[in-house]
Amino acid sequence: MKFDTPEDKAVFAKVVKNLPALVQEKCGGYDEIYGYMIVPSSDPETAEYYDEAAAHAIIRKFCKGYKFQYAVVMEHLASVLKWRKEFNPLSAAFREVHNPELVQVGMLTHYPEEKEANKKAVTWNIYGQLMKKKHLFKEADKFLRYRIGLMERGLRLLDFTDASNDYLVQVHDYKGTSMWRMDGEMKRCVKSIIHVFQEYYPELLAAKYFVYVPTFLSWVYDVIKQFVDESTRKKFVVLNDGKKLGKYLPHCPKSPYGGSDSKSLAEENIAEIRPSPYALYLLEKQIVEDVD
Ligand code: HEM
C-alpha cells in the first residue's frame, strides 16, 4: 500500500493498531463497513471473513478523507460504525423491499472494459421521473433507506484493493423536469440524503454528472450545492445536453446519453447484486435473531 509521506503511513498504522479497541469500547463490537469486517476477529466462527487487503484499503480511505489527522479519522470511524450498527445499511440494500416507484428510478451499471480509472461502476438516479411524485419525499426515512440501499449495492461493483476501481460514478438524470418547485419536504429529504453521504461514505465518489438539467432550473443547483462540501462539489458536472454524457462515460447507452452501447439503461441495469460473504453472514444472523 502506497503513502505520500512516512507521516501518513505512520498515522495509518496507528489507526489499524487502535481500531480493534475502538470497535469494542465505542461501537458496541460492531465491526463492519461496506460489507467488510474491518478488524480481525478472534472468534473462530467469523475469523474467515476478515480480508486484510480490503479492510486496510477501506481504512486508508478514511485516513485520506480526513487528511491523515489521527483523532479526526478515529472519530469518524467510530461515528460510521455506530451509524451502521443502528441504521443497518446492509438490510436496506439486501433485505428490505422498497417502494417500486423509487426502485424503478435507480439503476446500477458496470463497464469493466473502461480504461479510465474509476469509471467502471455507475449508479444512476433517474430523478426527473419523480418530479410529480411529491408524496415520496414526505416519507424521507423510506426514501433515505432506498437510496442508501442503492449506494450499498453499487459499492459491490467496486474492488477496494484495485486503485482503478475503488470509486463510484453517480448520474442524476433530470429529463422531463418542467415547471417545478422545490418544497420544504423535498428540500429536507434531499438535505438528509446529502448529509448521510457526506458523513458516512467518504472517498467513494469519483464524479457526479447531472444530465438533462433544464437551463431554467439551474437555480436548483445553486440552492442544493450549498448543502454540499467543497471537495464533493468539485466532482460535479452539470450537462444540460444529456447526450454529452457519452464523452465522460463512453460505454454508457447511446440513447439518450450519447455513449457507444446500443442497449438501453434498463437493459444495462444490474438488478441482481449479491451481498459480500460477511454481509451475508450478518444478515443471516439478523434473520435468526428476528425469528427468535
Ligand atoms: C441531490 C432529487 C432536481 C441538483 C439530490 C438528491 C435527491 C434529488 C433525492 C439527494 C442525493 C442523491 O440521491 O444522490 C431531485 C429531484 C429533482 C431534482 C426529484 C426534480 C425532479 C434537481 C435539479 C438540479 C439538482 C434541477 C440542478 C442541477 C442536485 C445536486 C444534488 C442533488 C447538486 C447534490 C448531490 C450530492 O450531494 O451528491 N437531488 N433533484 N437537482 N440534486 Fe437534485
From TrEMBL:
It is found in: Cytoplasm; Endoplasmic reticulum membrane; Microsome membrane. The lineage of its organism: Eukaryota, Fungi, Dikarya, Ascomycota, Saccharomycotina. It holds the Pfam family CRAL_TRIO. InterPro entries: CRAL-TRIO_dom (IPR001251), CRAL-TRIO_dom_sf (IPR036865), Sfh5 (IPR042938). SUPFAM superfamilies: CRAL/TRIO domain. One of its GO terms (cellular component) is plasma membrane. Its main location: cytoplasm. One of its GO terms (molecular function) is metal ion binding. Its cofactor is heme b. Keywords: Cytoplasm, Endoplasmic reticulum, Heme, Iron, Lipid transport, Membrane, Metal-binding, Microsome, Transport. It is a peripheral membrane protein. Non-classical phosphatidylinositol (PtdIns) transfer protein (PITP), which exhibits PtdIns-binding/transfer activity in the absence of detectable PtdCho-binding/transfer activity. Regulates PtdIns(4,5)P2 homeostasis at the plasma membrane. Heme-binding protein that may play a role in organic oxidant-induced stress responses. This is Phosphatidylinositol transfer protein SFH5. Belongs to the SFH5 family. Gene3D superfamilies: CRAL-TRIO lipid binding domain. It catalyses: a 1,2-diacyl-sn-glycero-3-phospho-(1D-myo-inositol)(in) = a 1,2-diacyl-sn-glycero-3-phospho-(1D-myo-inositol)(out). GO terms for biological process: Golgi to plasma membrane protein transport; regulation of exocytosis. SMART domains: SEC14 (SM00516). Residues 98-265 form the CRAL-TRIO domain.
